[in-house]
Amino acid sequence: MEPMLIGRNAVIYGGGGAIGGAIAQAFAREGARVFLAGRTAEPLEAVAERIRRAGGEVQTALLDATNESAVNRHADDVAAAAGSLDISVNVIQHGDVQGTPMAEMALADYLRPVSTAVQTLFLTAQAAARHMMRQRSGVILVFGGSGNPVPGMYLGGLQTAFEAMESMRRQLSSELGPFGIRVVTLRSGGIPESLPENMEGAGEIADAITTATMLGRAATLDEVGYAAAFAASDRAASMTAATLNISAGSLID
Question: What is 9-245's CATH number?
Answer without folding.
Answer: 3.40.50.720
